[in-house]
Amino acid sequence: MANNKIVVPEAREALNQLKLEIANELGISNYEDIDKGNLPSRVNGYVGGYMVKRLVESAQKQLSQK
Description:
By secondary structure, the chain is mainly α. The protein has helices at 12-25, 41-64. Helix content is 58%, strand content 0%.
């Protein structure tokens, strides 16, 4: 049971879109329809890891513009 909570609920759709984009970049088609429990943890970890990487890069760009 995941207890990760989205701090800004309005961002949920954007985060889901980012997840799908990254899965496609990694060559995982139909990620939204796949039972994530049947995927190896390494695959799910790649998607989550790249999401974090992209979010950090985005935040760094925003901070550098201030």
